[in-house]
Design brief:
Length: 380
């Protein structure tokens, strides 16, 4: 076998059996890339083993990011790494997040450098979760970057975001990449790690690297088994089981939603332009939607008129509002193509063809409460 790369178009997609990775694999293959997948088929996500959507035209390596020999083998003759594999959501296993996400990324970078592999670019999946709270506008201080809301404040039922200088309520504003990054959940801490490790390594080695901070991503293939991630998927399975969607806080928190194919396109763009090299870039729709609105959109699309419930619960470390400022990636040529309404109907069309849409959320909730991840408002 030749050590020569095929036109610089040979990709390793870690996590290529997952939501984003699998759509990216399809896109790359369609664009003529040769693709290898490294995925351990994490059982929380893939309860029935290797999903049928894993593209047969890609080489599939079943293996773990934590396994050095396996990662080294998967990197053989790879030109661009799209690092999507991660452990996600609100699970209580602290060490597993750090092992898979932080350590797994660190070790991959080490292998590439130690073995002097000819990797020409790394695009790493970061997240909007790296921000502590979305940017805000204070009537007196203008654009401000508020810290995470204190648990005591949330416990009082005050869900608002206050200006860090004068404590007035701040109006939500698009969050640019220069906002401070922190990590207010274990998952978020490890996304900060992944992003910083990759970008720092890139500066040290001269290998171009890009960290894409995805907004909430949804679409066909989103795990219907993992009740901890993907609010649209969770609401769908709740409603299909005749259960009301559960809103944390009052449901008026807002997020930026991206259809999975748009996120895949952002990865291809990051790999093929040099405009984002060395940078973190938000990827989002630029539109804010409240979680309550999501519940309504999903229930309308499914034609299941079950109203959501807000039971005075909240999750410490969660942001109130996060709308991506997408100026940077748009300047590099990114344009999201799928609207929220179209994306939701495509997801519902897909989920309608799935056999198992049981509600795993109810059991998960009990666990999250027991582990102190979900808290209750004490007085309002
Ligand atoms: N979905 C979102 O809303 C969202 C938002 C921001 C960032 N991200 C990031 O995007 C990336 C992809 O997320 P997704 O939504 O496609 O999740 P996903 O769970 O559908 O896919 C992740 C894939 O990684 C694999 N994986 C997990 N642990 C692994 C390990 N130890 N070794 C090898 N493979 C492993 C899983 O089996 C799965 O196929 C992740 O890095 C995630 O943190 C996702
Ligand atoms: Zn102020």
């Amino acid at each position: 076998m030749t050590r020569q790369l095929s036109n610089g178009r040979r990709a390793l997609v870690t996590g290529g059996a997952g939501l984003i990775g699998s759509h990216l694999v399809d896109l790359l293959l369609g664009e003529g890339w040769r693709v290898r997948i490294l995925d351990n088929l994490e059982p929380n996500t893939h309860r029935e083993g290797k999903p049928a959507w894993v593209n047969g035209a890609a080489e599939f390596v079943e293996g773990d990011m934590r396994d050095r020999a396996c990662v080294a083998a998967a990197l053989d003759r790879v030109d661009v790494v799209f690092h999507q594999a991660a452990y996600g959501g609100y699970m209580p296993e602290i060490s597993k997040y750090v092992g898979v996400n932080s350590f797994g990324t660190a070790q991959m970078l080490e292998v590439i450098r130690d073995e002097n592999l000819p990797v020409r670019k790394i695009v790493v999946a970061s997240s909007q979760a790296v921000y502590s709270e979305g940017a805000g506008v204070c009537p007196e201080h203008g654009l401000v970057f508020p810290p995470v809301r204190p648990v005591e404040q949330l416990r009082r039922g005050d869900f608002g975001v206050h200006c860090p200088h004068c404590d007035r309520l701040a109006r939500p504003a698009p969050t640019p990449e220069r906002a401070p990054i922190g990590g207010e959940t274990v998952y978020a801490i490890t996304k900060v790690d992944q992003e910083r490790l990759v970008l720092t390594w890139g500066r040290q080695t001269g290998v171009p690297t890009v960290a894409l901070r995805y907004s909430c991503t949804y679409g066909p293939r989103q795990s219907v088994f993992n009740p901890y991630t993907g609010v649209i998927a969770i609401f769908c399975t709740r409603l299909l089981n005749g259960q009301p969607p559960v809103l944390y806080e009052d449901g008026e928190q807002t997020r930026d939603f991206s259809f999975v194919e748009d996120i895949a396109r952002a990865n291809l763009l990051a790999a093929t332009t040099d405009k984002l090299d060395g940078l973190a870039a938000n990827v989002g729709s630029g539109e804010a939607t409240s979680i309550r609105q999501i519940a309504r959109l999903v229930s309308d699309a499914l034609n299941v008129p079950v109203a959501p419930v807000a039971r005075g619960e909240f999750r410490p470390g969660e942001m109130r509002h996060l709308l991506s400022d997408t100026t940077r990636i748009r300047a590099a040529g990114y344009e999201p193509q799928v609207s929220l309404a179209t994306g939701i109907s495509r997801y519902i069309e897909w989920i309608g063809r799935q056999a198992d849409v049981r509600d795993y959320f109810a059991a998960a909730e009990t666990l999250l409460r027991a582990k102190g991840i979900v808290h209750r408002v004490t007085s309002t």
